[in-house]
Amino acid sequence: MDDTRRDHAFTLIELLVVIAVIAVLVGLALPALHGARETARRTKCLVNLRSLGLGMQLYLDDFDGFFPMVRPLHKGVPGGGNDPSLLDLLGVYLDAPVPYKLDPDDRFFIVSDPYKCPSDLGANDPASDFEPVYRSMGTSYEYLPGVFMIFAEVMGVKRPAFGVTRAYENVRNWPVFIDFDDWHALRANGPSRNASFFPEWRADWNIELTARDLSEFFTEVQRHSGR
What we know:
Largest sheet: 4 strands, antiparallel
Shape: elongated
């Protein structure tokens, strides 16, 4: 009996259809993969922020609960005028190397966790060669009480660290460490930054402080520390 079967080869049309189907499936999968990667990066960022918060709590336990008056958080910023920086202080309480430069004349830092956000992938600043913030500044995060202390000084507050610390105790659940920029694109509303909050040091989406919030806060700063 003759074998009438013959090998079936794909036609060009069939190959094109298969390629088109694969392209559609890849197009559907890529956004999901990107979302999964960003979720993982944000989770790591939250872990970093909680670690910074817990390190700060150890510092507060040693110094009567007062936030340190050191700013900026970032190391090596011209005009910062602070020695040591907050990064140096936290380095005592965190089991991680403090950001450093191989040579004092180097432009960029060598940074490890918990000081860098994995979504801090590059800046839009040609002055920093479009490097991530942590590379040029020493960390991806900002120390908000230090920013408030600067404004308190400008306002003529006599004891900025005292006033800002007491105001934080009154408002509660305000961010202390925050992402330096809006790096996380998974949030539908509000700033796409993470933060760690005083006093529980939970890490979550940052809250957007209103002008009224800040006005009431600095009224408390003045009340506690005097002008």
